[in-house]
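Example complex used in Figure S2.
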Amino acid sequence: MTKSNPGHFFEDFHVGMELRHATPLTLSAGDISLYRALTGSRHALYSAATFAEANGYDGLPIDPLLAFHVVFGKTVPDISLNAVANLGYADGRFPKAIYPGDTLTAVSEVIGLKQNSSGKTGVVYVRTRGFNQTGDEALSYVRWVMVNKRDPGAPAPDTVIPDLPDSVDPRGLSFSRAYAGWDNTLAGSAHRFGNYEIGDKINHVDGMTVEEAEHQIATRLYQNTAKVHFDGHGQKESRFGKRLIYGGVVISIARALSFNGLANAAEMIAINGGTHTGPLFAGDTVYAWSEVLDKAELSDTVGALRLRLVAVKDQDPGDFTLRGEDGKYAPGVCLDFDYWAAIPK
Amino acid sequence: MTKSNPGHFFEDFHVGMELRHATPLTLSAGDISLYRALTGSRHALYSAATFAEANGYDGLPIDPLLAFHVVFGKTVPDISLNAVANLGYADGRFPKAIYPGDTLTAVSEVIGLKQNSSGKTGVVYVRTRGFNQTGDEALSYVRWVMVNKRDPGAPAPDTVIPDLPDSVDPRGLSFSRAYAGWDNTLAGSAHRFGNYEIGDKINHVDGMTVEEAEHQIATRLYQNTAKVHFDGHGQKESRFGKRLIYGGVVISIARALSFNGLANAAEMIAINGGTHTGPLFAGDTVYAWSEVLDKAELSDTVGALRLRLVAVKDQDPGDFTLRGEDGKYAPGVCLDFDYWAAIPK
Amino acid sequence: MTKSNPGHFFEDFHVGMELRHATPLTLSAGDISLYRALTGSRHALYSAATFAEANGYDGLPIDPLLAFHVVFGKTVPDISLNAVANLGYADGRFPKAIYPGDTLTAVSEVIGLKQNSSGKTGVVYVRTRGFNQTGDEALSYVRWVMVNKRDPGAPAPDTVIPDLPDSVDPRGLSFSRAYAGWDNTLAGSAHRFGNYEIGDKINHVDGMTVEEAEHQIATRLYQNTAKVHFDGHGQKESRFGKRLIYGGVVISIARALSFNGLANAAEMIAINGGTHTGPLFAGDTVYAWSEVLDKAELSDTVGALRLRLVAVKDQDPGDFTLRGEDGKYAPGVCLDFDYWAAIPK
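Predicted assembly (1035 residues):
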């Protein structure tokens, strides 16, 4: 009997199934440094303990996206080892700040199943939760993936499609920080909540070329072991003929690029959705643009922007490319990501 | 007079000679993060403080292989700057756990010498010890290297071949952890001591392509300065015409790959031997397989597996390739490493 | 109105103008590990807490060059986003040691301006200071850059050229450490203050090939966002047609290489000047040589060497190449850097 992990196939999942994932991970200042060095992150809230403490944190926190990638990575061996595609995210939340020294553990629950008409694959919906060492829920999100069946003859399960919100209501998140010590100059922008209008599009200008070593180091930092990202020899026989960059690398680089234009929208408080609309490969240059989709009041001193973050490759982000005339994502569009960020008023 | 280090040549060594090495190094959480990001290490014992503390550690320890590479790196300027080949390892032990904040210093003693028949080179055997800041021995191993003579006419020393054990007896290591809090799910495998039989071969399935940047960053992390790993311009004139990847990088990647099939054999407690059987270059993809060579009881709750860890490149590890019909290592076999790992019963 | 940062153009600067820079950064053990892994730094003073504490530090300090790059990086969006060239440094000092946990903030003052005869560009001189979280000045230096005008028709400012010292007087730096616990063997060299003479040239022998991933990771670690280092797609249209390596990467690699010959000159205490005399690109191999320009007594137990550190690429540093017969820097010379280092007597 093989002792390596064969992963789960579509017919192995059932609604209500709980999967506790290996490996718990203690995050540290080392992860903060590496995340910055790999993504180019510059938000003051995640760079300087002084700035974070002046704005409601008990020290320098871990960037929520770093925690997200770590929790996501843990789910790969159990959820998506036999996946064909990662289809979407919804209802992502970050209820508890994470600090160096905290240990994250991840648990997923299957909340939906739908066999595809081909009979060879199906869609699995999971709600994944990350907990800290005291059992507090630190983050939570839904994702759905298309997974191969082991045996195409296995019977189809009853179809269950979870009821997912189009977007998270940021007013329901109990956001408690007052951002009392926010300093525009240190944060890097004069533009606060009131300076952004729904419909605004922001060209983040800068570009970041991604090397094989960079995305591999980042993806291992998150303990994500999906072989498409690492096995260059094996990938020669694949659809693209080469290693594919983990989508989370694209999210984090695009988010870091968005500093230039959205520096004060530093704190991601919810993920509404996200689609990896095209592959990224080593040697490609990532650019990003954002669109303000909505605004919300969180408190007297803090608002929230609902932002569409789009990553494009090897093209001017100032063209604000998203979809072609056929309604499909245009060539070179790699990411369409929808999130809420808190921003001082 | 040159002020750069010329290194020692074969005739500079004598049995009983002690070499205290530069540079002492304080290990930190930053090294733990980098080691994970560079190797793909996922063992819960070295990933999560909670898991480590539940299983007999006083916090998150440093992976013994990381400590090994750091100590090894210190010896390079004194032992192997003028080496032709690294021939073998024996009798490696890790008597004391190392934690972030500990400072490692290394000392080597020459325990054997044998001039080769050519008269141009000789084999130097050293016992190297790594100490923490309180003087406790943290690790110890023997290695032997072939070193050039400065002057082929220098007289040959008396031949002294040290008496080295074929393997370490794990029952003599005073292993004290009970692994009382071991959780298979968090550790990543249902397979414990009783599930492995002598002769079992395990295909670790996954592959890892190594980039120049990755092995260079890792090798500098260990402060190993052997120029074959870094000087691409100089290496154009060398036998391979390019940079050669440090063998320790191969050991650590193969060991990290072995998680998939041996996740519970998390703790390396002794190195019996090891041979770098072929070169690895940037762009090559490392795969690994293991063979259970022996088993031993350590306590009521913990056993040990003696494992052969083989790294191959650009070929299916499920073929379990080791030697050809001529008894020589087959092409593409990069590492034949023999160690003991503790594993819960 | 664009919300991304357009940077300052020449006519936006005036003498006496103060620029507080984003983003404050808390340095950590993670940065120490990454700096070592990216540069190959091996000085015991910045590697081992034990060694640092035995020689006058309150723990393992941050390498002054790492702090320099971090402070420099902060100035880029405000000073050199529209720069044509970085022309020089002067009067660099490190008055306060920095430790993990300290937060650096940077402030620059414009101290000189000179429009070029073309009318299209001008030279901006700034004094930049880095402060720790208690407001102590941790480092300070002058640099001057050639910056584009937005509008060539804008009037020229009055020319102000600051009075800058050719070199820092190390006796004025109040150097207070006695190096009481200096151990040559642990530090890696038998050569102390008395072993170096003015005029000595030292071949540092070793070479380091730099990969795209390495310089990008380093430059992001410093939160330096100058697009010439990252935007491979955009750089296709540039003068060199490819990404240019940040000059600070060259300084740090050359300085790390200088360990081999100058291991005891571990502590950079002042920067007298520096010129990036030629571009470095990924794939190039850096070598270094040094020349002792001057010597000074700091105390009964410590002296200082004024060192010229030269980085060359793809050529033997033992040729000590600097300038051609025409007096210009010779091809392949990348850096001519002038600094003072403390060294035990």
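Chain C has two domains: 1-27+62-164, 167-345. Chain C touches chain B through 52 residues (CB under 8 Å).
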